[in-house]
Amino acid sequence: MKLVAGAAWLLLTALAGPAAAQGARPGGGSAPLAVREIGSMHVGGRVAAVEGLPERETVFSPGAPPLRVAPNGRFHVEQMYALFVKLEAPRARYPLLLWPGGLTGATWETTPDGRPGWQMFFLRAGHDVYVSDAVERGRSGWARFPEVFAGEPVFRTVGEGWALFRIGERSEWDDDAARRVPFPGGRFPIAHWDRFAKQSAPRWTTTDRQIQAAYDAIVQAVCPCVVMAQSQGGNFAFTAALNALDKVRAVIAVEPSGTPGADAQAARVGGVPHSVVWGDRIAEDPFWSRIRGNVERWQERVRAAGGGADTLDLPAAGVTGNSHMLMMDNNSDDAASRVQRWMEAEGLMRD
């Protein structure tokens, strides 16, 4: 699909949200983007057989005659969805793959208060961008459980992320929006918390193997590339680099919640630069301080093998108040600019 610059801007306005239509663009740029192609793909997965379940009769549309539904047979399962936007003349040497945490690819697309998200920021910085929904989330789709996915899905309440994502103290959450008290100086746009909570999608805690396989599949399909992942996605990104040393040219982990196991050979990724980004209030949070300790030990192993494992600690850099969802905070462009400068310093952009 060939798009002139004006048509590209109209299409990308839909991706970026209301703020884009008002001229608010990452980096302060004003020129429309020249886009070569917008599309999507499903990668990975397998065919699974289900048998032994009873048939039932279902009406699919009001007024339609009932149909017999046979739940037995062979089904495509464990595939992963990705949306891509390719530029006419990318500055980046490699595509940028954006992998979410426990939510969906919406993490990267538009902030809860309607500003362009990191998808648009990095497009404007010159990257072809792929945004994924992990296996069993969003447009990747479910599979039957427990016949295919072990266990049951986990559903996140409206307020669950308030403390977990370091928006405020657990005791300061309230179902009444007017009574919620965030941390002083917090950057998350709490007036739009309920809009953010609508991004929650059912997830499983038993599908790490399947998710990793799908991420490895997209690496094989579109890379060499740079992988940027947040939260749960961080471990998948670290492992994807281990599994495809010739494909993953850099890993950027935004507050990763996990790392490869003790038996992982960190020396193998010595040639793959890593950067880990942290927001604020981690030292005061026992859960996140423990996670950060685990990640720092992984980084130490990478450095001991001669690799690059940098840390962008936003509070240490004088940027305070960021939550776990720092790509949605009101200074999200500032954080993204610092990540972009790291990529430039690593030679991942063309001159």
From TrEMBL:
Tell me which Gene3D superfamilies the record gives: alpha/beta hydrolase (3.40.50.1820)
> CDD domains recorded for this chain?
Esterase_713_like-1
InterPro entries tied to this protein:
AB_hydrolase_fold, Carboxylesterase_BioH
The residues forming the signal peptide are 1-21
Entry keyword set: Signal
PANTHER family annotated for this entry? HYDROLASE ALPHA/BETA FOLD FAMILY, PIMELOYL-[ACYL-CARRIER PROTEIN] METHYL ESTER ESTERASE
State the protein's name: Esterase
Name the species this protein comes from: Craurococcus roseus
